Amino acid sequence: MGAAGQPASGPLPEIDTLKARIAQDNRRRPDLSIRLAQQALAQASPAPEDRRWLRSQLIQDLVRMRRHDEALAQAQAGRAEARDPKEQLHFDVLALMTLGDAQRNEEVVKRYQGFAAQLRPLARDIQDGAVPMDVANAWRLAGTAMMRLGQLPESIQLLTQALRVFDEHPKAMYETSQTLAAMALVHAKSGHPDQALHMVQRAIDLSEAANERSSLSGYQLGKAYLLGLLGRTDEQQTALLTARTLAQEELMSYDLAVAVTNLADVALQKKDYPAALAYSNEAIPLVEQTGDKESLWVAWINKGTALNRLGQPGGIDWIRKAIAAFAATPGMESNVAEVHGMLAEELAFNHDHERAYEAAMQFKRLTDGVRKAADHKRIAEANAAYEADKRQRQIEALEQEQRHQHRFRWMLALAAAAGLASAVIAGISRYHVKRAYGAMRDMAFSDPLTGLPNRRHLINTIEADLGLARRQRNDARPNPDLVFMMIDIDHFKSVNDVHGHAAGDAVLKQCAAVLQRQLRESDTLVRWGGEEFLVLARQTNVQEVHVLAERLRASIAAHAFSLDDGQELHKTCSIGFAAYPPQDSAGQLADWHDTVSMADQCLYVAKSSGRDLWVGVIAQAEPPGRDGGAVPDLRAGVEDGSIQLRWGEGRQIVWPETGPVGAPS
Question: What φ, ψ does residue 534 adopt, rounded to 5°?
């Protein structure tokens, strides 16, 4: 390679020999391929079809070397040389591939929308057998970018269309596995980790059958992430070790950094602090090479925690160093708050209670600030979504009247608006490797102890559930309610005080497993904080959800909690629930935080009534004179008749610091 990245001078072999040498080059480090292709394209001699092949291969090799700007320039040059619309689309999609690998997802979607309308006619070109595959690859690339941006309905639509095409082509194992992996993340983000795990395992099986090893480390990272969500820590560790080995073999530096960083995290969960320290020390230089600053700071936290738990000096300093780095970066406020919580825990472990208290208070102040800012943003977004829903229903009614097609008109309107009748091309190299699971590097959406989704996960995925619940209520559909159920382990503090924090951790992990077994696949169990869990029960009926509440209560009461020292404990739980949207929200957009607050008030009443009890709001009407901005007071609502409660059979409820209330009707 000469100066300024130019290929070395010298005579070129014949084109067929040249193409063979490029095809046989080491795809892990395709330096020779890049030099030969650049040198050939600098000359005018190759025929148009050979220039297209050379430039396409060059783009893929440049992407493999993460030289994204050069790859985009080559895609633009190829488009300018294109002889017909098919070739233009070929290089358009190679540009999508490049942008997607660089995680420039907004640009992927924007470019896709720019040529999406041209794709349907090309998809009907049965004379060219490559066109259906090209179309499906376009859907796959755009759907993957939309998934990363949180546009889940649009993403699953495109990915499903792509998968249908790939299923008809037995040799398309690489493309099929890539699509399955992207669909797995959609299901994970939608709160369905079991479905996601099934899909990512299919991707692994297909890749192994086709000996397509280039993406296997990324798929194993995805599998590890999902196993973590499901609380299967030992299997998660095995998947991470497999990903680490594959990444080393395939020279996948980013995947290797992700695998080792998360091995440190799993070791911390398992309280294997020597292993956590070793993995952290291994991860830090690997992550530094990738340039991923946020993952580097996570590695610092892991190292600091491991050092602190081993009684070695410097652990708290590493955690403070991470806090300073997060605090200096705009948009990291929630991370700063979360790490302050970790700092408080480590200081308490050191019996430095004064500083632990200061860190805990800072955690609370920062968390409240983040929540307040997020509330303002969600209110604005929710109002916009409500107006969009209202307009959509008006459109549906008009179309229903005009065309007499009752059930599927909204799907046609959505397809026309989003340009989903589309797709296009690119002979994507079997050896092209995408950047491994961007979502994998951010474990902040799962609770490290139980593996459950955490509060942040719920906040980031709740809007789709709220919109569906509003539509079901407005359309008077059966089971229209979205029920929030707060669960608190009774007298949990005594477990830590008497048996130690390791016993408390064991109880929480077993609680998560016991509760999860009682839920439907469509429900989501969230670690809310401390000894509190939250169940999000979708498409249910609040008049009947007490059956689920009783099942959850009884399952905890019946379970024998096993401690590491062989002892068994028996615990109970208290539960409060309420439904979204409340019946009084027909004329305004309800705030789901109010529903959580009502469930929390019910939980408090269950506690004051002797614990081991569920209490829930089963009807709620607008009380006279209520301030529209205020959260309803549970007791006041019961007394003025605007709120109706139900609670465990044979029990009485007692308001805090007051006497009993009459038996439920």
Answer: -130, 130
